[in-house]
TrEMBL record:
One of its GO terms (biological process) is protein transport. Residues 23-296 form the CNH domain. This is TGFA1 protein. Keywords: Cytoplasm, Protein transport, Transport. It is found in: Cytoplasm. It comes from Hylia prasina. GO terms for cellular component: cytoplasm; membrane. Its main location: cytoplasm. Coiled coil: none annotated.
Length: 373
């Protein structure tokens, strides 16, 4: 049974980005606060400001205002963008080179600092250096079976470590000293400081696109065999049951308490609290799904959309209205970490009371008694 957890809202439409130039495709996106950056296949970066608007009826819409666009001077697609807001820098991967550009005017840094030989890269969201004016970047190198760690400052880059892997890596996520890697035939956890590695489970990267995503401190979400979304900690164990995805998941994102996944035809929403599928949204031709500071964004080649979460209280009330007491209570308990303590206690008491009356009306007196207690 479904829950309305998210609503799909258009943010940037085709005309705003490409006008009538149909050959332009969206390759990557980055969102930092109100700033939305889009990288395209014809080597341009576009910068938009996103404004959220709420109508009197409570309907949310987004107005995107184009700030500027910049040609990077190559005949190659912009394949990845990552913002380092503390440095007001945007890291841009194009033609195996990461360039640092200013977040505001999109101009390259005057020193010309760059990282060469990168296939893909990610930022360490749980950095180990302790320097607020530096970001830690992990790249999969063009050198075979090699991962490199860099410290990136406002106008310079510095290599910290080079690590060799047992097989060719094709996807990576970082947490502190831990790398979660998708290799050719399996996922592993590797501590790049000590060199100690731990096998997680087998996976064939030739058949499907691997997904490796950091979802919290020392925890990752992976696309496992048999269409399972698997959770793994840096110790190589799983503290949560897996979620059942379709076989051909392209991307995954987290918006607590939900895991959102994208495949060829749908966006699916699973609860991390009871692993059940809660919502399915038809979405064709999607190829990007990412979360940015709690904002979940999906994109086709031509447009960008935002998945707006409905307030948890509204979702809980909808479940109670459908007499789905157990699910409502699970969601209410899970909402504790998103709601201030005093407000949560008042809300939770009211929900227990409502749930008690529903059970009472269904002649489930023992259950009702427990809830009223």
């Amino acid at each position: 049974m479904s829950v309305k957890a998210f609503k799909l809202v258009s943010a940037v439409e085709q005309e705003m980005l490409m006008g009538d130039k149909n050959y332009i495709n969206i390759e990557c996106i980055e969102c930092c606060g109100k700033n939305l950056y889009i990288g395209t296949n014809d080597c341009f970066i576009y910068h938009f400001l996103l404004d959220e608007k709420i109508s009197t009826a409570g309907k949310i819409s987004f107005a995107a205002t184009k700030q500027l666009h910049k040609y990077l001077g190559l005949k190659k697609p912009v394949s990845e963008l990552k913002a380092a807001s503390a440095l007001t820098r945007l890291l841009v991967l194009c033609d195996n080179t990461i360039t640092l550009v200013n977040m505001i005017n999109l101009e390259p840094v005057p020193t010309g600092a760059r990282i060469k030989g990168a296939v893909t890269f990610t930022l360490n969201e749980n950095p180990v250096s302790g320097d607020p004016f530096c970001v830690e970047v992990c790249i999969i190198s063009v050198k075979r079976r090699t991962i490199q760690m860099f410290m990136v400052f406002e106008d310079r880059v510095q290599i910290v470590k080079e690590v060799f892997t047992p097989e060719q890596p094709c996807a990576v996520a970082v947490d502190g000293y831990y790398l979660c890697l998708a290799l050719t035939t399996q996922y592993i956890i590797l501590n790049y400081n000590t060199g100690v590695s731990q096998d997680l489970f087998p996976y064939c990267s030739d058949e499907k696109r691997p997904i490796v995503k950091r979802i919290g401190r020392q925890e990752f979400l992976l696309a496992g065999p048999g269409g399972l979304g698997m959770f793994a900690t840096v110790d190589g164990i799983s503290q949560r049951a897996p979620v059942h995805w379709s076989e051909n998941v392209i991307g995954a994102a987290l918006c607590f308490p939900y895991v959102v996944a994208l495949d060829d035809e749908f966006i699916t929403v699973h609860s991390m609290l009871d692993q059940q599928q809660k919502q399915t949204l038809p979405f064709k031709e999607g190829h990007i799904l990412q979360d940015f500071e709690g904002k979940v964004i999906v994109a086709t080649n031509k447009g960008v959309y935002i998945l707006v979460p409905l307030p948890l209280e509204k979702q809980i009330q909808d479940l109670l209205a459908s007499h789905r007491v157990e699910e409502a209570l699970v969601l209410a308990k899970g909402a504790r970490r998103n709601i201030p303590k005093e407000k949560f206690q008042v809300m939770y008491k009211r929900i227990l009371q409502q749930a008690g009356f529903i059970q009472f009306a269904q002649l489930q007196f023992l259950e009702a008694k427990e809830l009223f207690r």
